[in-house]
Amino acid sequence: MAPNDDSLFPTAQAVEGEVIAPEGSIAPLVDDTQAAGLDLKVRSQWSYARMRFFRHRLALIGLFGLVIIFGAGIVAGHVAPYGYADIDLEHILQGPTHAHYFGTDDLGRDQFTRVIWGIRTSMEVGVFVAFVSTFVGLVVGAIAGYYGGWLDNLLMRVTDLVLTLPLLAVLLTATRLLGQGSQWRVSLILVFFFWTGIARVVRGIYLSLREKEYVEAAKASGAGDARLMFRHILPNTLGPIVVNATLAVGTAILVEAALSFLGFGIKPPTPSLGVLVSDAQRNPNDWWLTVFPGLAIVAIVLCINFVGDGLRDALDPTQRRMRA
Amino acid sequence: MPEPLLSINDLVVEFKTEDGIVHAVDGVSYELFPGETLGIVGESGSGKSVSTLALLGLIPQPPGRIVQGTAMFKGRDLLKLKKRELRRVRGNEVAMIFQDPMTSLNPVLSIGSQLGEAIKTHFPDEKDEAVKNRVIDLLKLVGVPNAETRFNQYPHEFSGGMRQRAMIAMAITNSRRC
After folding, report:
1. B window 126-165, beta carbon within 8 A of A
2. In the CATH scheme, what architecture does the domain A66-315 have?
3. Got the DSSP string for A283-321?
C-alpha cells in the first residue's frame, strides 16, 4: 500500500471533494436535531424510584399504616381522649365501650390513650435505635471493608464479640444496672447490640465493591479514600442499608417490648407497648388489655417490613423492571 | 532535542503468588516526548496494563511489588511520590481510559456527576455551573448526542459505545488542550 494512500479512511473531503465539517469539529454528529428519536419525556432517577415505590402495593399499604399509627403517636397529646395516667375509679377493668374504645385497665386508665402513648414511646425507641445503630454500623463496616487488613480484622473481631454475647442475659443485666428504666438509656443499650448486623452487611458489600473497576477508575482520576468510600461505594450499599435500617426499627420495637414485658425495660408509668402487655398480665382474663397493645406491635412491625421491602425495590437504579 | 515528558527506565513489577513470583514486567524502558503518541503492543499477559497501572500507583501492594525502576514525569519520579501527591497527578496530569466500559462506570451515579467529580477532585473551587458546562462540552466532544439530557442519565441508560465515550471524556476532563 502506498504510504500516501488514505483510502482506508475515506474522509468527507476525499469522497465529496469538499469540506463538510470545519477542521477539528465533529459538531454535525452531535447536533441535537439528529437525535429526534430521543424526544421522550425525561424522568429523573428519583421520579423513577418514586414511581416504583408507589406501584408496590404492599409498600403503599405499609406506608399508609405507618403514617396513621406513627402519626397518632407523634400527636399523642392531641388525639388521646384522656391523659395516660388519668385514673377513673368508677370504670375499672371495663371492656371496650364508646367512652373507652379499648376498655380500661385495673386502675381505670383508658387503654386507648395508653396504647397511643405507648406507640409514641416505642416509635421513639425504634427510630432512635435504628438511626444510631445504622450510622455506627455503617462507619465501622465501611472502614473495615474498605481498608481491609489488620483494621478489618480488629473491627470484625469486636463485632463478633458483641454478636456472641448472650443477648438476653447481657441485655437484662445491662438494663438493670445501667438502664434505670429510662427510655434513652435503654435505647442506647439496644444500639450497642444492633450496630453489628449492619456493620457486617456493609463490610461485605464494601469488600466486593472496592475491587470494582469503577472504583479503580475513580481512583485513577484522583479520588481519595474518603471520596471513594462515601461517594462512590456508599450509594451502592444504600438498598441493603435502607432495608436493614427499616427492619431494625421493627426489631428494636420488638426487643424493647420484650424487655419491658420482663420488667427490665422502660419503667411504668411511662407507657410503652411492652409495658402495657406486661401490665396486662395482672388481669389475664381481660383480653382487651393484651390484644390492643399486642396488635399495635404487630401492625407497626408488619408495616415497617412492607415499607422496607418497597424501598429496596424502588431505590435500586439498576432495576428497570416496573411492577405492573 | 526536547526533554522527554515521560521516561520509564528499567521498570520491574512482580506479583507474589502462592505458586511463586510472577514477573509481570521485567525491565521496561521507554521515553515519550511531548505531542507524541506511543502504542504498546503485546500478547495477553505481556505486562502492558501492569506497566501502565504501575505509573499511577494502581498496583495493589501486596501482592504486587515494584522492584526497581524509575518513571520520570516532568522531573518527578512517579514511583516515589507520596499518596497525596500521586492523587494530584492522577486524572489531572496523567489519566487513564479504562478498557471495559460496562464495569468502569459507577452504576448508581449519574454520568454527569461522575465526570464532574473528576473535575471537582482537582479543582474544588470550581463553580457547579462551570463544571456542568464543561462536562456537557466534553460529552459533545466525544460524540454523545443530546448531551444536556445525557448529563443526568445513569450508565445503564447508555449504550456500550456511549459508555466507552463517557470513559474517554472522563480521562480528558482536566486536559486543557481540548
Report:
1. 140-141, 143-147, 149, 152, 154, 156
2. Orthogonal Bundle (1.10)
3. STT-HHHHHHHHHHHHHHHHHHHHHHHHHHHHH-TT--P
